[in-house]
UniProtKB/TrEMBL annotation:
The keyword Hydrolase applies. This is Biotin transport system ATP-binding protein. Signal peptide: none annotated. The keyword Nucleotide-binding applies.
Amino acid sequence: MIALDDVLVTAYSPDPAGGADRVVRLLGPVTLELVEHRVAIVGANGSGKSTLARLLNGLVLPSSGTVRVDGLDTARDGAAVRRKVGFMFTDPDAQLVMPTPVEDVALSLRRLPLTPAERDVAARAALARFGLADRAEVPVHALSGGQRQLLALASVLATEPAILVCDEPTTLLDLRWRGVVDALLADLEQQVVVVTHDLDAALQADRVLVVDDGSVVFDGDPAQAVAHYRALMQVGA
């Protein structure tokens, strides 16, 4: 279970007049528990939704309050939390670091007690799971955007995290690849928390959070949440 207790995230912003730096609120305070199998987070650009997602595996730490994953505090138990919570970025190039797909997945597996030969076998099995078996030794830069996102997903899931957090995983994809990635995420056994601009995908979740101006302004039924978000955006326009 993911639990946020009175979480506030702030940052320092330079004063354009040359005075002391100002403290800016990015998110919060937020208190909630996430137990559903599929949770979607929607909101406008700059609303704080990515900050919320990054709190869940310790990529962002709260300025005050606590974030816990199965009782582990992201601030004190960061390494243990990241073993439980995998994270996918919007741009797969932000997390693909090795020359070939099989090497990239094998790198993720280095934290497990496997021999190099066992890592290679496990890496190729992970690639096959996502239809990339025949791309194992192709240069990563030669893959399509959709294939790179599948590779990023394979690398994250190879270590079998209990929870997967995805920050707009389909934003850079065309319609075909968006459907492929959405279908794969929907079929995962892991709890999935996904930040998305795709309201059709959000409607398939068990629960939707709407974030606006650093606050969770709606939390609940997907259809009602999407309707609330649409109305919010019309008012903003």
